[in-house]
C-alpha cells in the first residue's frame, strides 16, 4: 500500500469524523480528496462519494433514531421522489453529458470541469449556511401538501445526483422550512434521506463504471470508524463553533476548486 492510499484512508477517517461531529459535510471532503489526492476522475469520485456518504449516514441514522430524532414518515416522503431523481441523473444524465461542452483555441470546457465547478458552487452555498448565525424560531409543525414535497424532492435529488453529494446541507433547511420539522429532528431525518438517495444513486453508477470494490469498502470502513469517533467526541466539543469553522474551511475549498478548474486548467 503506497503513501498516497494511506493518506486517502486517513482522509476517510476525517470524513467520518466530520459527519459525526457536525452531522454533514462528508461529500464536501470526499470528492476533493478522491479527485485531487487520489487522482480519480470526478465522475468516479462522485460515485464513490455516494457509496461512502450513504453507508456512513446509515450509521448516523441509527445513532439519531436511538435519541428519537428521526421522522421516518416525512423522511420517506422526501426520499421517494429524491431517489428517483438521483438514480436517473446518475444512470442517464451524467453519462450522457458530452465530454467536451465548449472549445476554443485557448480554452476547453469539459464535463469533468463543469461537474467540479458545479460542486464548488454547491459548496459555497453550504459554507454560507454553516457560517451564518441562524435565529431560532418556534414554528408549530404543519405538514405541507405531498405534491410540493414531491417537486422539492425531485429538484434536490437531481442536484445531489449530479454532484455526488449526500445533500444533507440541502435537506435540513428543506425539512425545517418546508416540512416544519424542528431543527434537531430535521438533521436526524435528513440522514435517512441521504442514506437512501446515495445508495440508490450509486446503483446507477454500477451499471456505467468499473468499481474498485477493495479500495471503496476499506475507505468506507475507515469513514464509519470516523463517524463513531466523531459522535463520541461531539459530546465534548461545541458543535456550533465546529460547524462555523468547517464552514470557513468549505468556503476556502470551494474557491480553491474553482481556481484550479477554471484558472489552472
From TrEMBL:
Keywords: Cell membrane, Membrane, Transmembrane, Transmembrane helix. It comes from the Bacteria. GO terms for cellular component: plasma membrane. The chain crosses the membrane at residues 12-37, 43-62, 74-93, 113-131, 151-174, 213-233, 245-263. It is a multi-pass membrane protein. It is found in: Cell membrane; Membrane. Belongs to the 4-toluene sulfonate uptake permease (TSUP) (TC 2.A.102) family. This is Probable membrane transporter protein.
Amino acid at each position: 500500500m503506497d503513501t498516497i492510499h494511506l493518506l486517502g484512508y486517513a482522509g476517510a477517517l476525517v470524513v467520518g469524523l466530520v459527519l459525526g461531529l457536525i452531522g454533514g459535510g462528508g461529500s464536501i471532503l470526499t470528492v476533493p480528496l478522491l479527485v485531487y489526492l487520489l487522482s480519480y476522475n470526478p465522475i468516479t469520485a462522485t460515485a464513490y462519494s455516494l457509496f461512502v456518504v450513504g453507508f456512513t449516514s446509515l450509521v448516523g441514522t441509527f445513532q439519531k433514531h436511538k435519541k428519537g430524532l428521526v421522522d421516518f414518515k416525512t423522511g420517506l416522503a422526501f426520499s421517494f421522489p429524491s431517489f428517483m431523481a438521483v438514480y436517473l441523473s446518475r444512470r442517464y444524465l451524467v453519462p450522457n453529458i458530452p465530454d467536451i461542452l465548449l472549445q476554443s483555441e485557448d480554452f476547453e470546457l469539459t464535463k469533468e470541469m463543469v461537474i467540479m465547478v458545479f460542486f464548488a458552487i454547491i459548496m459555497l452555498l453550504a459554507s454560507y449556511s454553516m457560517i451564518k448565525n441562524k435565529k431560532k424560531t418556534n414554528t408549530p409543525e404543519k405538514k405541507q401538501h405531498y405534491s410540493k414535497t414531491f417537486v422539492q424532492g425531485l429538484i434536490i435529488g437531481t442536484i445531489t445526483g449530479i454532484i455526488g453529494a449526500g445533500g444533507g446541507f440541502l435537506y435540513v433547511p428543506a425539512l425545517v422550512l418546508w416540512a416544519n420539522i424542528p431543527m434537531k429532528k430535521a438533521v436526524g431525518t435528513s440522514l435517512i434521506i441521504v442514506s437512501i438517495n446515495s445508495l440508490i444513486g450509486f446503483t446507477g453508477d454500477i451499471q456505467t463504471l468499473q468499481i474498485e470494490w477493495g479500495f471503496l469498502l476499506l475507505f468506507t470502513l475507515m469513514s464509519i470508524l470516523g463517524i463513531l469517533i466523531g459522535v463520541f467526541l461531539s459530546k465534548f466539543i461545541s458543535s456550533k463553533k465546529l460547524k462555523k469553522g468547517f464552514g470557513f474551511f468549505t468556503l476556502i475549498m470551494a474557491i480553491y476548486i474553482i481556481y484550479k478548474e477554471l484558472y489552472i486548467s
